[in-house]
């Protein structure tokens, strides 16, 4: 440790684009810095693209070339880039090395195998299912070789223990309530007009078109909703994924064509755009079949928007009927019914008491405090190993 209670922390993420894990990394970095820690963020960057959001922390961009649609090559290129960036910066300059995903986890696992680092921390947000054995092995190695494993929800902490024998610790996400507060400094009108967001009502889903996000089922539910709300618009925002969702996206777009201009797919959005779209929405749907935590639910509630959420873990671990409208993710009729409930008097959600209480439980300050305690334990483990 570098002296006193200050740790030199390197956080690693897989991209500079607006994805949940990247947002988590940047928010955690800021909160750790505000808690007095020395934080550097490492991220692969194609063509020198900057981080999608400015950070008060130092950011090291690891240059990578475009991968041309080959997912395995893309992952390998990013692993190599992060390894090279850390070696160039100097591994001795950091007390804690913390990977937020499988790509950066493998970069650190390889450096550990080479004897260049002692070990690393890995946060598991969620795990995917891959047909490609190389991708599956990379995903396994990233957490299996880590010295300390964290998860963003109790559901995934239990799953890591029960399915993989990993003794993980839960460190929840936070939410920046002020970022989504209605008294914002920029005007939403022009942004929404440019994006074509004008429905009455607007149903928003964030995260792009993915099977994991259950976007096709949401589309079917929206078609049901249109029967009672003919002016409704479904807006699918975001989608800066590194994985291949082309087949699923083609099926979605073919079905959406039947609904004409009632469906808008924005693609990746910058910070101001996502806030503007969130505030222009009437309900935010997160009907995923698999999530690590589901940060968008808290962001939507911070913006004062009712949320329709899958009645599955991890959501059932921190939400209840006072703060959301539940839906069965495999049933389009159930999702449509939940959307209608959310649009009627905001679903009866208790924005006066229950929502503020929920948001107060999930602060990045508290997340940083928990991380710092676990980092200290991680370093004590190394110190004890050296003394044996």
What percent strand? 15-25%
Individual helix count: 14
User: Which CATH first-tier class of the largest domain would you pick?
Assistant: Alpha Beta
Q: From N to C, what is the helix and strand string?
A: EHEEHEHEHEHEHEHEHEHEHEHEHHH
Shape: globular
**Kindly, what is the distance between the CA atoms of the first and last residues, rounded to a whole number of angstroms?**
19 Å
What would you note in describing this structure?
This protein has 388 residues and is of the alpha/beta class. The chain has two domains: 8-174 and 363-387, Glycogen Phosphorylase B (Rossmann fold); 177-361, Rossmann fold (3-Layer(aba) Sandwich). It is built from 14 helices and 13 strands. It has helices spanning 20-34, 71-89, 102-113, 133-144, 154-164, 188-195, 215-226, 246-256, 271-280, 295-302, 315-318, 332-343, 354-361, 364-387, and strands at 8-12, 38-46, 58-64, 96-99, 121-124, 148-151, 169-170, 202-206, 233-237, 263-267, 283-286, 307-310, 325-327. The strands form two sheets. It has a seven-stranded parallel sheet. Helix 2 (71-89) crosses helix 3, helix 3 packs across helix 4 and helix 6 crosses helix 9. It is globular and about 65 Å long. It holds the Pfam family Glyco_transf_4. Keywords: Transferase. GO terms for molecular function: glycosyltransferase activity.
SSE layout and pairing:
Blueprint: E1 8-12, H1 20-34, E2 38-46, E3 58-64, H2 71-89, E4 96-99, H3 102-113, E5 121-124, H4 133-144, E6 148-151, H5 154-164, E7 169-170, H6 188-195, E8 202-206, H7 215-226, E9 233-237, H8 246-256, E10 263-267, H9 271-280, E11 283-286, H10 295-302, E12 307-310, H11 315-318, E13 325-327, H12 332-343, H13 354-361, H14 364-387
Parallel strand pairs: 1-2, 1-4, 2-3, 4-5, 5-6, 6-7, 8-9, 8-11, 9-10, 11-12, 12-13
Helix pairs in contact: 1-14, 2-3, 3-4, 6-9, 7-12
């Amino acid at each position: 440790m570098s002296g006193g209670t200050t740790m030199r922390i390197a956080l690693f993420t897989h991209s500079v684009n607006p994805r949940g894990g990247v947002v988590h990394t940047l928010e955690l970095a800021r909160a750790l810095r505000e808690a007095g820690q020395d934080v550097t963020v490492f991220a692969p960057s194609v063509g020198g693209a900057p981080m999608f959001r400015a950070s008060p922390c130092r950011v090291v961009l690891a240059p990578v070339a475009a991968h041309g649609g080959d997912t395995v090559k893309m992952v390998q290129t990013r692993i190599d880039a992060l390894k090279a960036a850390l070696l160039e910066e100097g591994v001795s300059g950091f007390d804690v090395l913390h990977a937020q995903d499988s790509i950066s986890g493998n970069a650190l696992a390889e450096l550990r195998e080479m004897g260049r680092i002692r070990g690393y921390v890995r946060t598991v947000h969620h795990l995917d299912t891959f047909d490609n054995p190389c991708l599956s092995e990379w995903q396994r190695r990233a957490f299996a070789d880590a010295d300390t494993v964290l998860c963003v929800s109790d559901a995934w902490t239990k799953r890591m223990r029960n399915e993989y024998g990993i003794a993980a610790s839960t460190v929840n996400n936070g939410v920046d309530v002020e970022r989504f507060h209605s008294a914002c400094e920029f005007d939403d009108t022009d942004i929404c007009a440019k994006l074509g967001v004008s429905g009455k009502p607007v149903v928003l889903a964030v995260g792009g078109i993915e099977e994991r996000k259950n976007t096709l089922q949401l589309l079917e539910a929206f078609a049901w909703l249109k029967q009672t709300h003919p002016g409704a618009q479904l807006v699918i925002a975001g989608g800066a994924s590194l994985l291949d969702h082309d087949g699923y996206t083609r099926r979605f777009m073919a079905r959406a064509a039947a609904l004409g201009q009632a469906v808008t797919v924005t693609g990746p959005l910058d910070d101001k755009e996502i806030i503007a779209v969130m505030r222009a929405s009437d309900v935010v749907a997160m009907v995923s079949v698999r999530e690590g935590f589901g940060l968008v639910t808290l962001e939507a509630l911070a913006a004062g928007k009712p949320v329709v959420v899958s009645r599955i873990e991890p959501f059932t671990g921190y939400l209840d009927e006072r703060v959301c409208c539940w839906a069965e993710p495999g049933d389009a009729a159930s999702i449509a019914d939940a959307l209608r409930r959310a649009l009627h008097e905001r679903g009866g959600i208790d924005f006066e008491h229950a929502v503020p209480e929920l948001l107060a439980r999930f602060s990045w300050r508290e997340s940083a405090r928990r991380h710092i305690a676990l980092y200290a334990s991680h370093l004590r483990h190394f110190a004890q190993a050296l003394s044996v």
